[in-house]
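Appendix B. Raw example, untouched.
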Amino acid sequence: MIVMMHTTVGWHVELEFREDDQHTRAAAMVRLPDGTEVRTQGHASRHHSDPNQPRVGEEVAAARALNELAMQLLTKAHGEIDAASGRTSHPIHV
């Protein structure tokens, strides 16, 4: 009989926003179990003729920051795969 053990791991991503009437900036950070922190930024700009909708700016800026966070995590994983295998690994596609 084979018993499979599953480990639950959780990562918490933090997002902070800075806004003015025209711009929203998002800062994203995730702290990995090994203590490594990955930080990224995203931004959104509102055209002067668009209505002021802060939540939309936050969503766009957050999406851009999280996309960059994903890309940095993929790059980090690639480097770890290469270091462990001693060769260049195939690209990891999103």
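End of appendix B.
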